[in-house]
Predict the structure.
Amino acid sequence: MSLLPHQPLRNWRPPLMVGGTYLAFGLAWILLSDWFVHLMIPDRADVTVWQTGKGLAFVGLSTLLLLLVQARETARTRAADRYWRDVIDRSREGFWLIDAHGKTVTVNQAMADLLGYQPADLIGHNPAAFATPENQPRFEREIRHDLALEGEQTGSAPRRYEITLRTPSGEERPVLVQSSALYDDTGTLTGAYAFLTDLRDIRLRERELELTRHALETSFDEILRLDAEGTVQDANQTACDNLGYPREDLLGRTIADLNPDYSLADYQHALWPMVQTRGKVAVETGHRTREGREYPVEAGISHGVYRGEEFAYWVGRDISRRKAAEDAYQRSNQALRALSRSNSALVRARDEPTLLEEVCATLVQTRDYLRVWVGLPGDDAQATPDGPPANRLRVAASVGEEEGAPSPEGRRIAARAMTEETTRVRRASGAGEPPGNDGDPDGERPRSGGIAALPIHSTEATLGVLTVHTARSEAFDDEELALLEELAADLGFGIQALRVRDQRDQQLAELRLAGAVFENSAEGILITDPEQRIERVNPAFTAITGYPATEVMGRTPALLQSGLQDEAFYRAMWSAIRSQGHWQGKIWNRRRNGETYPEFLSISEVRDEAGQLAHYIASFADITQAHRAREELTYRTYHDPLTDLPNRDLFRERLQRALATETEGLALLFIDLKGFRALNDTVGAEAGDTVLRRIAGRLQEAVGHQDTVARVGGDEFWVLLHGADRGQQLDRWVAHLLALIGQPLELGEQTVRLEANMGVTLAPDDGTEMELLLTNAATALHRAQAESGGQVHYFRPEMQEAVRHRVQLEEALKVAIGNDELAVWFQPQVRLTDGTIDAMEALVRWHHPEWGMISPGEFIPVAEQTGQVVAIGDWVLEEALRQMSEWRDAGYQLPRLAVNVAAAQLQRPDWPERVEAALERWSIPPAALELEITEASLLASPNEARAALVRLKEMGVRQAIDDFGTGYSSLAYLKEFPVDTLKIDKAFVDGLPGAEHDHSITEAILAVAGALGQQVVAEGVETTKQADWLREHHVDWAQGFLYYRPMPATELMACLDPTRTT
């Protein structure tokens, strides 16, 4: 059977050649031979003999000529056949030739290799016999179809289909079959042939692409793909979760929507060119979530090109925990600075008030306290010795933000600390002293987060009390109280030393200082007698008010009143002055020229040695410029800079106020302009801004001043309508606003039209809480965007399903351990020198009975946020040790078992003891356990982590830094923590060996590990090239899909060597 394709026209070539040759030869023979015979034989009797000989010669020569022609054509056909056989035999694809009965005639070596047979083993068999059982019927049908095409050969194209074949060992081989019928020279169907392509590599590449996408989706890092305009083209799930957007809502947003540090202009004209030029850029910035919360991010931005299109790949990590650790470190430094500066104040201070003020100011400046004040035993009219304890104190020094006298709660706690000569603490959580005791009739809670009062002792007596107010709920731990008590003791020593100085010299120094301050102060100062008649003013008073000193002498400060404060204000002010001895605050006064201005005013009483009121001193500063700047800043803070509309914050504030004052008739509309992004790309950003301003103007003009229109970002607007009940009235409003948006817009010579999607919710029909209504409107808008053709969607309760899923996940996770839904899988770590399994990493998996397998990337963050990660981590440790004990009992001796540890576990004081108990319970030597901790977990609470890891190291437990290089990689903490192993993160291994950046980082990690005597494990090894590079650079172990995937313990048994011992 020839391998040449059937060509009907070429089949006529041999007969035509033979016939033509025979015709030419015959005509030539007849004509020339007759002429020659007549010429040579004149005798007619002899002609007949010659004619017979001539005939015999003709037959002989004709036969020879025909044989020569047929031999030439046969040689040509055989040469062509050998050529095609050689081509087929050299082909990497399998070739299969069958006869008209479906039996195999020949196959090439590639086909035999694919199936695992010798070519001779396949001859005579129907190809369907080598398919898997479930594929045999279909393969037989396809073969019969090819063999049923007789008479349809003209123009028939090869047929394509996929079939799964089976080797003698039972392995399956997916192949692509391209088959065609085969015909002989007469056009008769003689069989069929097919080329078969092995699809295993294609399937593997498809799987690798899926795994790569899965790795990106489950990465702890936020990964965004941005175009040159700063628009998000793609994002992984971590970015969606961290930013609070569904993927479909996040795509299409700009970097300016997500990052408060970068406007589109900053990105397009600064960051993007830098990324293009350098290839990679690292930044520390911040992200803003959908709800407006901002958090710090450390990001690497790299340049990418795909099919001519350029992108920026943004890989960022939430570094909130690292920042928190830095804040803790900063607070520790602040404590040391506070003590140092306070001690310096003790040395420098020339008088007691200065000392007290400096100590209070130092604490406020270095410790972020709201207010610090010192109370001394009462010796004035306001501190009556026969009154309640709180009234026996006078405020000797006070520094901080709160105005007026200390709160009754603060005075009460301070009085108890001084009376009982012991430290008293009132924390924000309610621990310590409950409100309402010790003569506090109002039972009020402290205005700040907490209060601590510490008695100030001298060698002879208790001198007073140091009182501290803070807004930090975690304040006043043992370390902080120890610092404050030490500072109070030093302060007592300083007060005692100052009091032995000559009082007259002190008074003289104070008078000189007061005079200098009075004359040279930039603040206006006036002094009055007890009847408030002005006795003296300084030059700054005249410069600020315009009144010369001679014009105000003997008059009262009432001449400066602007009339903008009512009588109640002044009554409260003088009440504070008389009760506390001073007052300070903002007030509006009037200059001599009639102009009103804001000032910051401080009024204090001055008493003589007998305690009688002698003077009032008032100092004030003109804060006009600061007030204007504050007003401008406030306006900008609450308004959109492009459209001058209220922004998201102001809208939320007005909505909250409306919900508090109105009980019905509120409608909340979320509007999204359809096609604006495409329009913006077409006409340009400047024209796009013009469109937004005009749309904003139309909406603002339509709703009027009572209602609110806000632009909250991009092409999204929010509208708050008052008095809009559900029904035709609201429908008319909605239609009217959509019609306004749809009106034509003239942009130069171009006219454009826009449409909008709208989500609508009403109060109180759909809820009365602000966050719920905002969520309802957003949900309705998303539904409107998703539905084809629908521009408006009103909220319905059933849309809350997505919100409920998170709650359901939290509740299901609470019972997952008890319901036996969690499982521990294991992934081997192999020794690179010989490929033997040297350790196992335990990994948690969750199979829900209804939802199926749930990704760790979905439930681990929930567990961390709800605190359930501690229980899950303890369970994983227990299960992993139990499994290792079973392996050991069965003769499988593993040198190490690696278990991941969460930051919350490290923070538990008893955690090392719990680990020790688990090891003893399962008879596992401590050296066989290796705990993997991320850098972020170490830095979340470094002191607790260090103490726990040192205790575990003393027990013999090994420790490894997981994902090394992706967090806060510091040689300082590598020295401080007893680390045995560094695990190179998969992000760096992926680029090996070709990526120079990953190459350099990995070599640096290996250098650090070598210098510190630590071993190295490479994570995520997937190719032999990566493994070869790591082996050449003396990496100890590798872990990844190249060797083993994570698997249950039952499947892992086949991989273990029962002869291996530790």
Q: What stands out?
A: The chain is about 45% helix and 25% strand.
